[in-house]
From TrEMBL:
GO terms for molecular function: L-malate dehydrogenase (NAD+) activity. This is malate dehydrogenase. Keywords: NAD, Oxidoreductase. Its EC number is 1.1.1.37. It is an enzyme of class 1 (oxidoreductase). GO terms for biological process: malate metabolic process. Belongs to the LDH/MDH superfamily. MDH type 2 family. Coiled coil: none annotated.
Amino acid sequence: GQIGYALVPMIARGIMLGADQPVILHMLDIPPAAEALNGVKMELIDAAFPLLKGVVATTDAVEGCTGVNVAVMVGGFP
């Protein structure tokens, strides 16, 4: 969604966890949004944020939550 789309670059820049904290973003969405989610993943990778060490984009809750230490959950209507 739009809120998540606005948040992920800020997290990747270090605004949320600090300028010295590397992150691996795990993004989880519903199956109808999978294509858009993969587009966001490609945008993040293309932006080459120095703190961004990886991106997981999935519609599977187990995969999306595996290894996560901090979660920001944003919900809305599809």
